[in-house]
Design goal:
Layout: E1 2-6, E2 9-18, H1 21-34, E3 39-42, E4 46-50, E5 53-62, E6 67-75, H2 78-108
Antiparallel strand pairs: 1-2, 2-6, 3-4, 4-5, 5-6
Helix pairs in contact: 1-2
């Protein structure tokens, strides 16, 4: 993760790989559910405005094997940026575990 500061925002940029478009759609859906009380925009990416800033999630590159996404967080305070990143990361980690379990079931079954 890259963290920088340009007045008045701390900027966090993180790149992640997601295995399939179905997992990306599930990820985006969970993010929307987690932050459903905040204003959102869904154009080329998902952008969520929260009290100390905003964050966006967008697909940078889609290949046959996976999707490369960018998570960008702009926060007025570093602590709120870290909190948002932590929430997003928990959802991403959980969905990766669900995917791995689903793959294991298919392989065993």
């Amino acid at each position: 993760m890259h963290i920088s500061f340009e007045t008045p925002y701390h900027t966090f940029i993180k790149h992640e790989n997601i295995k399939t478009i179905a997992i990306y759609n599930r990820f985006q859906n969970w993010i929307q559910g987690e932050f459903d009380l905040y204003q959102m925009e869904e154009l080329d990416s998902l952008k969520v405005y929260y009290p100390n800033g905003w964050f966006s999630i967008r697909v940078l590159l889609e290949t046959e094997l996976d999707l490369n996404i960018e998570i960008k967080i702009k926060s007025r305070t570093i602590n709120s940026g870290i909190l948002i990143e932590s929430k997003i990361n928990k959802i991403h980690t959980h969905l990766n575990q669900v995917y791995e379990n689903e793959v294991k079931k298919v392989v065993k079954g």
